[in-house]
Amino acid sequence: MTMPSLIQNSKKQETSARLKKFYSMMSQALVMSQEDNGMIEDWGKPSNIYDDDGKYDEDANSEISDAFFTKYIAPYFKYVSAEKAANFHKYTKVILTDGSIFYVRNGGCYDILYDTNGDRKPNTEGRDQFYFVICTKKGFEANSLTNTYFGAYCPVAYCNTREKAIQQCKNHNDQCAGILQLDNWEVKDDYPIRL
Q1: Cβ pair 181, 145 in contact under 8 A
Q2: Measured between alpha carbons, how far is 73 from 190 in angstroms, rounded to an integer?
Q3: Which CA distances in Å does 113 have to 37, 49, 88, 137, 175?
Q4: What integer pLDDT is reported at residue 114 of this predicted model?
């Protein structure tokens, strides 16, 4: 093998390992949280808040994200620090022990942006940044591929087959976690984005 292909294979393996670990840790945290806080569909979720001009109110929605993280995730998840990310739409920024980062945002569900290598570049959707959702409202679970309350963000209607998920990743990089979840977090040779 040549040096570039060895480096590429190493990136694929590292990305796969980190995604598997994050998915497992978050899934376990939500199971433990439900033991203390009741079923996830009963947690409720405030609607998005908009300012007087009809724009997404970053400050108000940031407070919702912080409250959700503090109550439902933080006690069940090992992390280094959590803070508001001024440079990232005021999402709640959570730094994990392995240096990776995830952000929590109040969206249609709770939107989770997981960055496998933290603040290091490229900081590009589909390469080192992957979207997940935690949906607490009945009927919204279809936003995740598993038809559960937590999973990769890729609407099931567009990602219900592997071929559709690959096409969706090509067209919408924010939905590339979908193909990876279908592939059990393995970055296969036909993954459409170069890591």
Answers
A1: yes
A2: 34
A3: 24, 20, 10, 19, 11
A4: 97
> Residue 84 half-sphere exposure, CB side, CA atoms within 13 Å?
14
The C-alpha atoms of residue 34 and residue 31 are separated, in whole angstroms, by 5
Dump pLDDT digits (tens) for 75-85.
998 999 998 88
Number of helices (H) and strands (E), helices first, in the chain?
4, 6
Q: What is the pLDDT of residue 1?
A: 60
Please report, for residues 81, 107, 110, the alpha-carbon distance to residue 68 in angstroms, rounded to integers and kept in the order given.
16, 12, 9
pLDDT of residue 118: 94
C-alpha pair distances (Å), 195 with each of 1, 15, 182? 18, 8, 18
- What's the pLDDT at 154? 85
Q: Where are any strands of DSSP class E within 128-173?
A: 129-134, 150-152
Which stretches of the chain are DSSP H helices? 3-37, 58-68, 162-171, 177-182
124 by DSSP, 3-state: which? Answer: coil
Distance CA 129, CA 113 (A): 7
Coil, helix or strand for 187?
coil
Task: Say if residue 155 is preceded by a cis peptide, omega within 30 of 0.
Answer: no
Please name the amino acid found at residue 84.
K
